[in-house]
Amino acid sequence: MMAVKVLLVGEGGREHAIAEAICRSPQNPRLYAVMRLNNPGIASLCQKTGGEVFLGDSKNPQTVWEAAEKFHVDWVFVGPEEPLFHGVADTLEKAGIPCVGAKKGPAELEMSKASMRRLMWKYKIPGRLRFKVFKEVSEAVAYLREYAESLALKPARQAGGKGVKVVADLQAYLSAEKSHVKEEHAKIIYSEHMKDYTDIEDRILIEEKVDGPEYTLQAFTDGRTVRPLPLVQDNKNAFEMDIGPETGGMGSIAGKGPLLPFITMEEYRQSVSIVNKCVKAVEAETGEKYKGVVSGQMMLTASWGPTIIEFYSRLGDPEAVNVLPLLKTDMVEICEAILDEKLHKIRLELENAASVVKCVSPRGYPDQRELAKGHPLSIDLEAIRRHGGRVYFASTDQKPDGAIYSGGSRLVEIFAKGETIMEAGEKAEACMPYVKLGDGWGVYHRSDIGSRELLEVRIEQAQLMRAVYKYRAKKGLVGKTVEWIPRKGKLVLKA
Q1: Strand 305-312's sheet: what is its strand order?
Q2: Residue 126: is the preceding peptide bond cis (ω within 30°)?
Q3: Is the pTM of this model over 0.90?
Q4: Which of 109, 240, 456, 486 has the fewest CB atoms in 10 Å of its CB?
Q5: Which domains does the chain have, with CATH numbers?
Q6: What is the pLDDT of residues 353-379, one digit of tens each?
């Protein structure tokens, strides 16, 4: 029997974890990859399994199709979101090549944050936020001048996690200053964060501000069945205790079993239900089944309890690195069940361990990525293994002579597991001194991820939100808000 041939699209830490999970299959698959940068971890797995690397634009459907045709692969797994937004899955399907990854229509659930919000309101899906969308910056600025309220300003399209600003408008004496901040950030979103995106008309999204601990629910789906993975909590701010600019994620935690220490089983089931309803709504709206991965970036809020902040049409990064190394179910079997719409026959099994992932990033990331590029990586893999860590290469580029250089984003993601999150965090932290840049350029990470102190902050925050939303539920107020409308007084808005 011929070994199954799989083409992986993408070159980050998430894709390294996907590649490793595929290669653990007892079916002994042959791995191929199409990447913009030559990720050394993925390239090594391709070589070990008898596959090859195709260097090219992994976002370009034609490039991916050429690689799939060249290697005569059986199916393709798309790791990142941008190839899906550009229609890679659509192009492959037209060529008769199966693809684990949403087609362009269903992937709009992530690509257009505005479309996602409209979908949730149209189908009355719980956990939805009030929002307004603007095509012109002048209209957004006029709205912001009229309504002094706490809000979140975002690019209307997925922009790699950039451009999000939350402004709490609580102090009356600072209202003028905060109004100025809002207006200026709306202009920045329009002129900078959205300037390269012409695939949607909406430009600026304004949402109600909510508070609470965030968490990610990742799931496989064949459009009929949703198979959720354990919850993971990512830490997006660059520096300790959630300060600094937002990044793609500086590290993440997962507990033993499906839950996080600050999320209950009831909240987990509600989160799964929300994601399931969105998958069904996407099919109703587009006429196409959602096949691949869907992830809900959730927050436990006082308004709803489990609330959707964003959707992903793929596994999270670094969240995928928390769960895929612990996956005991055959990844090839999972993927083929997705393609054949037989996911209901699959039971996901994972090793019963807590995990922590810490990302090491070059100085300059996330705001000055050009400065973070082109530095030689010096990493002691054996020392990291001795300390209980496992390396997943992220934005790195291996040259023909074997030297590895930084690509401008996160360098590596260090995975560690343990009986508790704190134990896993200590193991991951012990690995940090063994990742450097050979030319002396600085690197940084967050030492607090996986710590008892940060976990206690999340637990306390969740307890507060839970008390409020449970009280609101008893009073029939879930999803309802009371607002002060200028010259009209208070107005109750029904969800």
Answers
A1: 226-228, 214-221, 292-301, 305-312
A2: no
A3: yes
A4: 486
A5: 5-103 (3.40.50.20), 130-208 (3.30.1490.20), 214-444 (3.30.470.20)
A6: 999 999 999 999 999 999 999 999 999
